[in-house]
Amino acid sequence: MSTSKSRIFAVLAASALIGALPLAGFGQQQAGNTAAAPASSKEALLERVRSIHQGENELYKQRAAKFNAAPKIQQEQMLRDAQQKLAQLSAASTKMADTYAATEIKINELHHDLTEKAQDLGLAELFGLARQVAGDAAGILHQSLINSQFKATEGKLDRVAFLRDFADGRQTPTPEELEQLWFEIHREMTAQGEVLRYQAEVVQPDGMAESVDVVRIGPFVALSDEQFLSYMPDLGSLTVLPRQLPDEFMDIAEDFYDASEEYVPAVIDYTRGVLQALYIERPTWIERIHLGQEIGYIIILVGLAGAFLFVYQLLHLIQVRTAVKQQLDNLDEPRDDNPLGRVLLAFRGDPNRIEEDADVAELRISEAVLREVPTLERFQHFLRVAVAAGPLLGLIGTVVGMIFTFQSITESGSGDPRLMATGIGQAMIATVLGLGIAIPLLFANALLSGLSRSVVQILDEQSAGMLAESIEKRRNA
After folding, report:
1. Rounded Cα distance, 156 and 435, in Å
2. What is the reported pLDDT for 385?
3. What is the pLDDT of residues 329-356, one digit of tens each?
4. What are the pLDDT digits (tens) for 276-293?
5. What's the whole-number mean pLDDT along residues 167-188?
6. CA–CA–CA angle 202, 208, 214 (5° rounding)
7. Sequence-distant (≥ 6) Cβ neighbours of residue 452 within 8 angstroms
8. What average pLDDT does range 29-38 have in this prediction?
9. Nearest Cα to 226, choosing from 194, 262, 202?
């Protein structure tokens, strides 16, 4: 500090001496010609020096010519005047040098006293602690979405830049800087407990920034137009998440964004964006299925075919059971729109025919029942095959996924989980898909089997009853 001040005083003294010397070319006549604005570049400075030097040479020649043209007595008088003025300037220079030396000594003494008093008061440690607190606060505030609310005024640094400059500073902080440090920390603490609505710039999915209403819940969550936002510290602005959270969270966010004064539930990410990012990165079911690749699509195709056949056969069996029940209520009038009616028609088709052999009648009834069984039990074989093939197809996908995993390990030479994730994901999703179609189709096949067996049982019961009735009538005859 003393060195810089001594340099300033030296420059001022030299400037005063140079400006006062008549032989240096800075007289009243030349002052108006050589005065110029401060140089803006090295080339301009060089040109200015050349101009001053040329002016000095011309002035010297003019004075030399004037001196030579004057009489000898006048030359002696001019020489005495110049010597007298030089003596005056030398005395002034000596006095200024003494004043500068005394001032520098006084500055050093005052600086020494200030250092001793600062050490006695512990200000060095206090200022060091203040800088450490400012550095820690700058790191926290840099990641805080509250920055989107508190923008820097024109001509001033924002609060993060101020804290960083304060932490990196080497000069003694002023009371105003210490007060602003306290103010920024206190303002952050106060804002963390607030739930409010304000205007802020939000980057939309198309990349354009718009000024919209933002609802902020402390430093945890920000909402805009019922959408979750994320804070980008490098840009210092909010942006709409490229993928929103699941529907249950979006419903809560919608109610909370539209709320006025009543108490409503809210979504809080206490990790300040970490859990939110995990939900965003979580793949959807479509992405998971795509991860299974060809094996996954084959398994899904088998499952869809089985589901379609199950629904079709289920509706058919429900219709058949309804028609059979209606036929049971009216056995004397058989109809051909249900299996029981067709069996009755096959047995009673020719009323003039008198069966002499009960075995022939039994065979005819058995034939009619067996003719209805394939329709009642259709698609069940495919469902059983799909139930057995689903896990096997999933096993194939698991093996293929593990092959990809081992291949990535071989190519990279390390067991990095990020490189292994694709193969492991394919293996797991294939297994899940295989079991996912096998288990539902297993229950579907059991349901169809139960319904078909109940209809067949009714046909067997009625067939046995008709045969017994026929034999009884023949014996009585």
Report:
1. 63
2. 92
3. 887 788 888 888 888 887 765 544 444 4
4. 877 877 777 777 777 777
5. 87
6. 15
7. 317, 373, 376, 377, 380
8. 43
9. 202
Q: What is the pLDDT of residue 36?
A: 45
Check if the beta carbon of residue 290 is closer than 8 Å to that of residue 425.
no
Report which of 421, 409, 420, 398 is spatially closest to residue 281, judged by C-alpha positions. Answer: 421
When pLDDT is averaged across residues 406-420 and rounded to a whole number, the result is: 70
How far is the C-alpha of 113 from the C-alpha of 99, rounded, in Å? 21
3-state helix/strand/coil string of the chain = CHHHHHHHHHHHHHHHHHHHCHHHCCCHHHHHHHCCCCCCCHHHHHHHHHHHHHHHHHHHHHHHHHHHHCCHHHHHHHHHHHHHHHHHHHHHHHHHHHHHHHHHHHHHHHHHHHHHHHHHHCHHHHHHHHHHHHHHHHHHHHHCHHHHCCCCCCCCCCHHHHHHHHHHCCCCCCHHHHHHHHHHHHHHHHHCCCEEEEEEEEECCCCCEEEEEEEEECCCEEEECCEEEEEECCCCEEEECCCCCCHHHHHHHHHHHHCCCCCCCCCCCCCCCHHHHHHHHCCCHHHHHHHCHHHHHHHHHHHHHHHHHHHHHHHHHHHHHHHHHHHHCCCCCCCCCCHHHHHHHHHCCCCCCCCCCHHHHHHHHHHHHHHHHHHHCCCHHHHHHHHHHHHHHHHHHHHHHHHHHHHHHHHHCCCCHHHHHHHHHHHHHHHHHHHHHHHHHHHHHHHHHHHHHHHHHHHHHHHHHHHHHHHHHHHHC
- Could you give the percent of the chain with pLDDT greater than 90? 11
**Which single residue is written with the structure tokens 């010297």?**
60
Contact yes or no for 398/433 (Cβ under 8 A): no
As a whole number of angstroms, the distance between CA 383 and CA 441 comes to 6
Cα dihedral value 206, 211, 217, 223, nearest 10 = -40
The closest alpha carbon to 105, from 95, 117, 97, belongs to 97
User: Hey, CA dihedral for 261, 266, 270, 273, is it positive or negative?
Assistant: negative
Mean pLDDT for 174-178 is: 86
- Give burial (CB, 10 Å; 0-12/13-18/19+) of 82: middle
Region of 57 please: left (phi>0), alpha (psi -120 to 50) or beta.
alpha
Burial of 209 (0-12, 13-18, 19+ CB in 10 A): middle
Q: Count CA atoms closer than 13 A to 103's CA, side-chain side.
A: 15
pLDDT in tens, 44-70: 888 888 888 888 888 888 888 887 887
What is the C-alpha to C-alpha distance for residues 285 and 436, in angstroms, rounded to an integer?
Answer: 13
Amino acid at 450: G
